[in-house]
């Protein structure tokens, strides 16, 4: 079989847990010494105090151990060791490895030392956040191909790319042994780019994540401690993102306030700052209307620590700020953030994983998207009428439509309850197929699996 003529996207059928047989996997890779512990490298956005990445990583570690057994040796590289240790415990067979922000030599060395490479970042094939992150994943793929080590992109997404990055993704992602896309839209995007690796589509691993029982009442407990005249009211969540910080760009120097991690700086200009301020005002106005019209409280949700400054800006613009509270992934781990999300009466989100992690509780939701990730998810949920693409829909009229949908779902939350329940069921079934694809992939190579 000619690997470079094969692409495939397994169709998600309503209520079905089937994934088509598709193409066989490429076998042109070195088989590990099965007498020793197999070594697996997980390359992703690890240690960023990002709720979605945290949920994915925990679920993927469990998948790897379910397939290869508890003795499998797992290595997780990170730019922030301290943050990663908050939710990943280093053990005899799990190692956390800090790497430099200039990652090329470190990643190459790690790939060479391992038997299997998994790309575990959801936003894998996009440059929305920064080209550097994309290049890290493509570089890991290139190194794996060079060393003849099997490489899988594990439940990932594809989004906006510059002309150069489209070329790089087509060339380097085609060297991947298997790409598991988390939405059909992502799979289609990769095919249209000309990526020739085998492609399946399932669902995001975060759908498998389960919160701890003791975290079910986090939202209620926090609000009970606040001195509010509406302390017994329901809570509407706003998962906000400052679209105008991104992408992070590579510069030898810049303003210290714009520094992410040298040599990476947030994109800032007078125009961007003005647009960011305007966006914060839009969110604040929407939050105030929820408080004034319905007597609800507002949770400003920071799914990544980097969202905090923008959330504070929104809070500072609210007329009813005493009825709002910021919940940040810096303070609350994924289990607690999931408990908060699933306790909301309504979610308005610009974060993909806020939508995913709230879905189990069928929390009514509206998306204000700035890249294709939420678009792909909402298309599969058949929720297009509750989706707003901020890249093309910034007008007052669109915010009026968002307000109209907020009113509708607060007043009639049961309207989409069945759709959300069914959507969660279907995505959970498909997310569980990720480890089955991993198992089949390794069996094809004669690996010992459970």
Automatic annotation (TrEMBL):
GO terms for molecular function: transferase activity. Residues 1-27 are annotated as: Disordered. Keywords: Transferase. InterPro entries: Polysacch_pyruvyl_Trfase. Transmembrane segments: none annotated. It holds the Pfam family PS_pyruv_trans. Residues 50-372 form the Polysaccharide pyruvyl transferase domain. PANTHER family: COLANIC ACID BIOSYNTHESIS PROTEIN WCAK. This is Polysaccharide pyruvyl transferase.
């Amino acid at each position: 079989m000619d690997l470079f003529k094969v692409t495939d996207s397994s169709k998600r059928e309503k209520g079905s847990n089937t994934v088509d047989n598709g193409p066989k996997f490429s076998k042109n890779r070195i088989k590990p010494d099965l007498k020793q512990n197999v070594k697996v490298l997980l390359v992703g956005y690890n240690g960023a105090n990002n709720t979605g990445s945290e949920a994915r990583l925990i679920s993927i570690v469990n998948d790897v151990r379910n397939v290869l057994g508890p003795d499998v040796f797992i290595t997780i590289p990170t730019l922030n060791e301290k943050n990663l240790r908050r939710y990943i415990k280093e053990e005899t067979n799990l190692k956390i490895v800090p790497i430099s922000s200039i990652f090329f030599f470190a990643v190459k060395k790690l790939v060479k030392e391992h038997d299997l490479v998994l790309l575990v970042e959801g936003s894998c094939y996009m440059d929305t956040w920064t080209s550097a992150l994309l290049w890290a994943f493509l570089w890991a793929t290139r190194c794996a191909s060079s060393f003849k080590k099997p490489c899988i992109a594990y439940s990932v997404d594809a989004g906006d790319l510059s002309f150069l990055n489209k070329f790089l993704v087509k060339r380097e992602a085609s060297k991947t042994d298997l790409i598991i896309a988390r939405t059909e839209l992502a799979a289609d995007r990769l095919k249209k780019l000309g990526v020739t690796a085998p492609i399946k589509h399932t669902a995001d691993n975060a759908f498998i994540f389960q919160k701890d029982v003791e975290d079910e009442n986090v939202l209620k407990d926090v609000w009970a401690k606040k001195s509010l005249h509406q302390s017994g009211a329901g809570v509407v969540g706003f998962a906000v993102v400052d679209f105008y910080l991104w992408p992070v760009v590579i510069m030898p120097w810049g303003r210290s306030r714009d520094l992410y991690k040298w040599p990476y700086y947030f994109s800032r200009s007078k125009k961007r700052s003005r647009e960011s301020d305007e966006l914060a005002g839009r969110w604040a106005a929407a939050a105030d209307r929820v408080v004034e019209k319905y007597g609800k409280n507002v949770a400003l949700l920071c799914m990544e620590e980097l969202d905090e400054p923008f959330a504070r800006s929104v809070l500072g613009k609210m007329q009813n700020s005493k009825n709002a509270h910021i919940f940040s992934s810096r303070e609350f781990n994924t289990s607690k953030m999931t408990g908060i999300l699933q306790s909301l009466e309504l979610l308005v989100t610009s974060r993909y994983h806020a939508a995913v992690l709230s879905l189990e509780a069928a929390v009514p939701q509206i998306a204000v998207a700035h890249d294709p990730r939420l678009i792909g998810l909402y298309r599969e949920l058949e929720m297009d009428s509750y989706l707003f693409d901020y890249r093309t829909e910034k007008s007052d009229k669109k915010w009026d439509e968002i307000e109209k949908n907020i009113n509708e779902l607060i007043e009639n939350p049961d309207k989409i309850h069945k759709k959300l329940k069914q959507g969660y069921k279907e995505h959970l079934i498909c997310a569980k197929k990720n480890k089955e694809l991993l198992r089949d992939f390794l069996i094809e190579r004669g690996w010992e699996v459970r």
